[in-house]
Each structure stands twice: as C-alpha cells, then as structure tokens.
Request: fold
Amino acid sequence: QARIIAVANEKGGVGKTATVVNLGAALSLKGEKVLIVDMDPQHNATIGLGVDVSGEMKTVYDLVSTGNNVSVRETIVGTEWKGLELIPSHVDLAGAEIELIDVEGRENRLKDALGCIVEEYDFILMDTPPSLSLLTVNVFAFASEVLIPCQTQPYAFAALEGLFDTIRLIKEEINPVLDISGIVATFFDSRTGVSHRILDKLSDDKRYKSLLYNAVIRVNTTISTSVDAGKPVVFYRRSSYGAIDYIELAKEIIKG
Amino acid sequence: QARIIAVANEKGGVGKTATVVNLGAALSLKGEKVLIVDMDPQHNATIGLGVDVSGEMKTVYDLVSTGNNVSVRETIVGTEWKGLELIPSHVDLAGAEIELIDVEGRENRLKDALGCIVEEYDFILMDTPPSLSLLTVNVFAFASEVLIPCQTQPYAFAALEGLFDTIRLIKEEINPVLDISGIVATFFDSRTGVSHRILDKLSDDKRYKSLLYNAVIRVNTTISTSVDAGKPVVFYRRSSYGAIDYIELAKEIIKG
Ligand SMILES: Nc1ncnc2c1ncn2[C@@H]1O[C@H](COP(=O)(O)OP(=O)(O)OP(=O)(O)O)[C@@H](O)[C@H]1O
Ligand SMILES: Nc1ncnc2c1ncn2[C@@H]1O[C@H](COP(=O)(O)OP(=O)(O)OP(=O)(O)O)[C@@H](O)[C@H]1O
Ligand SMILES: [Mg+2]
Ligand SMILES: [Mg+2]
Reply:
C-alpha cells in the first residue's frame, strides 16, 4: 500500500516542485517504486522530469474533468529512470476549477481516479499549486500525509500557521486520515543570519519542532540548473549539495 | 492621476511582494506619493512594511466584502515613511472568493472602492497572490498597467506565456485599458549560468524584449533581512544591492 503524500504550501516558490521531483527521484534511487502526480496547471514537475506533453498524451486534466472516459493507466508515463513514473499536468488543468463548479463530489475526482493503482507503488508524491484551489483540495482529499517545504525566510515561516489551519479543516470536513507528516526546511543558506534565525524558529516552535526533518535542503544552484536539463538533481549531479540533501531526506522518509 | 500598477505573476516566489514593497519605497524616496494595496491574504506586503494589523484596523477585506460599509479612507494606514501609505491585507481576505460567488460585478469591487482616491497619489502599486483568483482579477480590473517580476529561473520563464494569455483575456473581457508595462528580471545571480541563460532568453525573445526593464534585481539577502526588520530595503540599508537595484527600477519607471 503506497504512502500517499501531498507536497503543499500556499506560500509561493518555497520548493514544492523541487521537493516532489528530487525527493521522488531520490526515493527511486533507493529502490522504491514512485509515482509523481503533477496537479499544478503550470506543470513544473512535468518539465522538471523532462517530459514533453505532446498533443496525444493524456494528463491529470483528463482524469479530473468530466467529459473524458480515460483510465488512469492511460495517463501514466515512464521517465528515463527506473521506478519513477509520472502523471503529467497540462495548462488546461486551470480550467477544471470552473468546469467542476456544480459537479457532485468534485473534491474527490482525483481520489476516485487513482484509488485503483495505490497497491502498485511504494510512494505517490503530488505537487500542488501555491493556492487553496479545488486542485489542491483534490490532492488533500486523496493524500494520507502532507509534507510541507518551508523556505528559511520570514514570509514562508509566517505562512505555516494558516496552512496548519487549512489542513485541520480539510481533516475535519473532507479527509479524516490526513496528517502532516513533516516540515522540510529549504533554501537554507548557512552564510546568512536570516536563514539561521528562521531554522531556529522552526526548531524552537512547539507547533513545528517535532515535525521538522533533520535533513535540511541547502540553497544550491545545481537544483535550478538540473531543471534546465530536465533531470532531477540526483541524476544530474550526484555529488551536488542538492542531490546529497534530497537523498538524506529520502532516507529519513523511508524510515518513517 | 495615479499610475495604477498590478504586480503579478502566477509563478510563486518570483519577488512580487519584494517588488511592491521595495519599488514603492524607492518611488516615495524619489518624492512620489505612493499607495500600496496588499491584495494577498498572506498579507506579506503588510508584514514587509512593518504594519501590524490589530483587531480594530480596517483592511482591504472590508472594502471588497459585502457586509461592511467601510469607506476607503478608513482602510488607508500610514507607514514610517513619508509619501508611502498602505491598504493592509488580512487572512480573512481568503474568504472573499466564496463570499462573492453570487455577487453581481464581483470583479469590480476593488475598482469601485478605490476609484475616488486615484487623484491623490502618483502611484498605486498592488500586490497579488500567486494564482488567478477573484482577488487577482479584481486587481486587474482596476489597474491600467501590469508589472511582471520574472525570476531568472526556468520555471518562471515558462510561466510568462500563460500570464500573457491571461492578461490578454482580461483586457478583452473585463478591462480594455490594461497593458503590460514591463518585465523586471529578479533574483539575478551573475555567478550562475542559469541566471545568464534566462536573462538572455528574456532579452532575445521578441515577445518580451521590448518590455524588459534595463534595471535587473540581483539576488541579495539584505532583501530578506529587511523583511525581518519590517522595513523596505531602501530604508534598511541604502548601500545594499537590493536598494540600489530597486532605486534604478524606480528611476526607469518614473521616466515611463
Ligand atoms: N534548494 C534550492 N536551491 C536553489 N534553488 C532552488 C532550490 N529549490 C528550488 N529552487 C529553485 O527555486 C525556484 C522555486 O522553487 P520551486 O519552483 O520548486 O518552488 P514551488 O514551491 O514549487 O513554487 P510554486 O509556488 O510556484 O509552485 C525554482 O526555480 C527552483 O528551481
Ligand atoms: N532579489 C532578491 N534576492 C534575495 N531574496 C529575495 C529577493 N527578492 C525576494 N526575495 C525573498 O525571496 C522570497 C520570495 O520573494 P517574494 O515573497 O517577494 O515573492 P512573491 O512572488 O511575492 O511570492 P508569492 O508568490 O508567495 O506571493 C521572500 O522571502 C523574499 O524576501
Ligand atoms: Mg511548484
Ligand atoms: Mg507575495
């Protein structure tokens, strides 16, 4: 039975996509069978995995929209790397919110579509847009865990409180098994005071300290360069900080 | 008559708030009278200007929601700096989307509320969340210009095409005077190849080259440190790259 993990934070640019792509790849490197679901219309995880959505390909849009009778297997694409598969996204996904406005059970479209493949993976990692849209709610309705990337910056730390409230509400109203499994500090820059200050705030705050992973993702330009190459950083340059940090995080998550 | 500028980009974390706060401050430093409107429920621009929204204060939420009869003047707060005023945001703003779902003319709530004060400022800068929500549409309906921060990173560059489409649609359907006034490159790091490559792509692409400001915002940790101090970077440390770059941008924007 797969661990179904939503990677979410309404604050933008904190490393959600970087975490889905690179943690997913690091888990596959450790022999886990991983499915990545790109639920962001900006389809950044799809780009980061080097997958080019051509005209014929089915995407997560086809799964959640009402017009199509597409089976989930038709939407799963392989990547260059063993044990790492993807359900790609597409810009059309932005229209799903309006299309589903009057549809009964619209928050469970993803869960209904993916329920039948859960046994085939060890991990399902889902990327979300930086907003609490119907797409993010669909991801929360299906997930059993939420992994929260938190940039070591003041705005990102300030966003945590609201995010915890949101997840508590989802747990009460939509998905009783949903829990926050962890917070991973990202963009850590040991040369700057603000990074240390925010990391200290995370480890001192009683709401967050027990959830904070030991693995910290350092700021590392190889992570962005690897996006350009359409490869996760662990497959782009194993010796980089980005690769080392995401492998550390993968080890910690596998231990559970 | 004020120049009414929306600072927007659906890609998260590209420096929208940093641009609103720091460009706004730099413009006020040059003697312009500036109003900042924080239309993001995460109220980051409010935090960045050191304004603490206490129980009694009226916010932009009071202006757009239906229950309150609040005049715009009640929502305007001064900051520590001359010529720089703010309409703060509040987390309650996230609820406005649902509350306004059946309200006639819901996209023009902000425009209707702020129309009467346009004569009193030289610039009105509006911060937006990283999504195309009703809040962002309200900002686009009121603005006459859109300033787009674009991080010199692959995902941010990829987001431009969709953003241009969105703005074209808003111009056709809601606000015929809306135009993109410029793109400002942000987080530029001269030490990394990816930054140079994306800056080159911006200046070579015929869709973007004529819109690209000469001023480039370099990556600079003083920008985040200044957030911690609740001060725009031009008032926190005038000699920093962040302050120098935003003053350059302000000069270019004043020249129009
Ligand atoms: N540790 C890191 N060091 C340096 N750059 C990083 C790091 N993690 C991510 N990046 C880069 O920073 C940018 C923001 O990260 P990313 O897009 O993954 O964040 P996000 O939370 O998914 O953003 P959005 O809110 O738009 O979905 C990207 O260009 C990415 O390549
Ligand atoms: N030029 C810069 N150099 C270094 N850090 C920066 C720079 N500009 C902004 N930052 C910091 O990077 C983070 C992201 O910037 P910011 O929050 O302004 O982006 P945004 O587009 O408003 O994000 P969101 O999409 O969440 O609204 C913040 O912590 C900010 O302080
Ligand atoms: Mg993302
Ligand atoms: Mg912002």
